[in-house]
Amino acid sequence: MPHARNRNPSPIPEVTWDTGLKEMNETWKGAIACLGVAIFFVMTIGIIYWQVVDQPNKNWILKGSFSGLIWERRTQTLVFQTLTEDKTFAEIDVGNVGNPDGEVPFVRNLCWLNKTEFCYTWDSVAEVRISLETEEASETECYSVTWSPIHCHVDLKDCFSMVNVSWYGGAGVNTPSWPINDANISMQPFTVSDLRDNPSGFGSVLERYFLGSSGVSVLVAPNIPLHVGMESRQQFCLQTLPSMERMPMQYTVCVGHNIKAVHQESMQQLSTATRELPNMDVLRLPFWKLSANVDSRAKLERELRTFSNRLKRHHLGEGVISLDEHSTALLSNMDHSYLNSKRRTSKRHTRDIPFVKLLNISITLSPYLSIDSQQFQTSMQEGIEDYWLSLPLGPQGRPVPLLTQWKGKYSVKLNITNPEATNWFLDKVDILRSHLGMEYVILEGGEGNPFEEQSLHPPLALVGDEYIGLLADLAERIEDNAIVTSGTRSSHKPLFIRMSGVESNWSYSGLKGIIPSLLHHSLLGYNFFIPDAVGGSLSIEPVTDEELFVRWLGIAAFLPVISFQTPPWVFEKEWVSATRTSFVLNITRFYIAKHHDFVVPLILKYTEEWQKNGTPIYRPLWWLSPDNPITFTIDDEFLIGDEVLVAPVTEKGALQRDIYLPESDFQWQDTNNAQVFDGGTFLESYPVGLGDVPVFIRWRS
Ligand SMILES: *[C@@H]1O[C@H](CO)[C@@H](O)[C@H](O)[C@H]1NC(C)=O
Ligand SMILES: *[C@@H]1O[C@H](CO)[C@@H](O)[C@H](O)[C@H]1NC(C)=O
Ligand SMILES: *[C@@H]1O[C@H](CO)[C@@H](O)[C@H](O)[C@H]1NC(C)=O
Ligand SMILES: *[C@@H]1O[C@H](CO)[C@@H](O)[C@H](O)[C@H]1NC(C)=O
Ligand SMILES: *[C@@H]1O[C@H](CO)[C@@H](O)[C@H](O)[C@H]1NC(C)=O
Ligand SMILES: *[C@@H]1O[C@H](CO)[C@@H](O)[C@H](O)[C@H]1NC(C)=O
Ligand SMILES: *[C@@H]1O[C@H](CO)[C@@H](O)[C@H](O)[C@H]1NC(C)=O
């Protein structure tokens, strides 16, 4: 029971002025008292004025050797600036953390006497601790920021301004842009989701890394549940939701003299694992997606035969024929092979296909299994439900497989944390290899979390997009022949990544998005990717726009792998006489050869640099001119290494384009006509024929 404190006010002791002021007369006493009161008032007003009005709007809270951190009281922002205040690296709006009503003066460093650490407690909301980490030899200065909520209802949200700074990195989105300033994405968990199901979400590839053109990078700690939202052209925000565990928000901001220097330093922190190379043979042959709409293995074999004959007949050279998951299933008769291949050898059910063995094919598998399939039925009969992601809900705590949708069918997903299940999966791959002799295995379906889709709590190992990492581990075990379809925290692994499908049109969801997407992958360390098929693959119909196909091909030729879905012979017109080859077929052969002879050796050359320092192979123009703001927003040109610049046409109907050549110390030579131009210049309305792609190489006189 609350009880009031026993108040016993003692009378104020009487002041005895007598002793000192005995001789003073009454007038003097009055005057001194008045003066005292006046001084007291002036002081009080002064202090209040200093506290409220005259306090400086900003104050330095940390200073490094060339940069420092300022608290801006009026806007409630942390500002990273040079010590001379002539350049702002980044501005972080922390207003949401603080009390929105009152201005926080934010002046006292509670870790006082420490020049490299700043601490402050935001009354009953959060504590912040910012420490400056400088390494000798390094050209960057890093500030490690940790916000700790004081109680479990605090949501921490820090927003980085995108005004006057171009930002890169983060995650792939449905409509790629370079820089990411134009993206508009509502606050959501920062994990890879399947963009087909969640078109307004984050896709692959994704890293907790953002890079700003002012020479700043932001690396968010890996182990905190992070939400990210992007308000186009204004800011992007990092957020941690209130939780019982009172999760801190933790990130490191590094600043340096320019964007390139900061990126190179930050890559060392982003991925500390040794970078391993995937199977570089993937680069050498084009991938041809076979779109066979058939329902039996015999028909599929016929289609395969026809397709490979056509490739030969049109002199398109060697290639990898890529089978989708449905075709793979048909060809392997997988549905009839038994789950436990050791006990009942599946040899009886899957026969060798000698013809297929002669081809180079890639097959597609996923960790999903349709519940209609015999394999699933068998697994239930054999009591090995824990091969599939399950909930321990059944009678006697037996697991009940979790149902989810995969390609329109109710399916279960492989319990990738169960070693028996992954071994079973790998055995299946081995059996297929012995029957089909395939070169490559594409593993789809790492994205998507069946637990979170159904608002269930996943086990700790499968939170968010952890499945992708585990699937990448599984893929690594398929010798070096696996290709995955998403990446996060795995840029060092020896895997190719297949990019997601794009629209067959000229928009940023289609052709214009290729270069932004290429630069994004490469910046985050995913240099080895298979782009979407020439012409786009999202529509089931073959591409009919010949111009789109040819322009697309002109870009694809300079990417690590050329892949096709619409074969070039569909453009062959009847009226083309036998003596005159069709334009599209001819140009396809030309670019396949160009890729093989010119692009692949270049990629191999720069692979070494990537392995050693994490330097991207495909580079944005600011790589050569990191101090020139023009280069920050160029999204239709790219560099391969430091020596080749590719500037394809991305506008429908255009037969010319403006080209910026970076770095005034260089000269550039157009490989098509041997003309030489100075770097640091704009070539306005540079003529480009339909079959051409302007490619410049660094030229030394
Ligand atoms: C300042 O704080 C950092 C981080 O806690 C610590 O490592 C360092 O020793 C401190 N320096 C001084 C002078 O107290
Ligand atoms: C952005 O740049 C313009 C022009 O340099 C400047 O006037 C403006 O104040 C800057 N805005 C911010 C928020 O830094
Ligand atoms: C961003 O999206 C929100 C809704 O998600 C919308 O209200 C807002 O207008 C959009 N902003 C821009 C600049 O497109
Ligand atoms: C398959 O690929 C190898 C090189 O990886 C090549 O030598 C062979 O000719 C190819 N075969 C076909 C049928 O394309
Ligand atoms: C996966 O299998 C393991 C047995 O190895 C089991 O302990 C675990 O609960 C399963 N996980 C899920 C999500 O089903
Ligand atoms: C391209 O396709 C997307 C998706 O279908 C559509 O939203 C967009 O309007 C199309 N753009 C053009 C230029 O046709
Ligand atoms: C095929 O393309 C090449 C290069 O673009 C060109 O030189 C050649 O004349 C073309 N041949 C035919 C038959 O169109």
From TrEMBL:
Task: Name the SUPFAM superfamilies on file.
Answer: (Trans)glycosidases, Glycosyl hydrolase domain
* InterPro entries according to UniProt: Alpha-glycosidase_related, GH, Glyco_hydro_31_C, Glyco_hydro_31_TIM, Glyco_hydro_b
Q: What family does the entry list? A: Belongs to the glycosyl hydrolase 31 family.
For whether the record's keyword set contains Transmembrane helix, the answer is yes
Keyword Transmembrane assigned: yes
Report the protein name in the record. SITS-binding protein SP105
Keyword annotations for this protein? Glycosidase, Hydrolase, Membrane, Transmembrane, Transmembrane helix
**Under the GO molecular function aspect, what terms does this record hold?**
hydrolase activity, hydrolyzing O-glycosyl compounds
Annotated Glycoside hydrolase family 31 TIM barrel domain ranges read 301-577
GO term, biological process aspect, one:
carbohydrate metabolic process
- The organism encoding this protein is Triplophysa tibetana
Q: Where are the transmembrane segments?
A: 30-50
Can you give the residue ranges of the Glycosyl hydrolase family 31 C-terminal domain?
Answer: 614-698
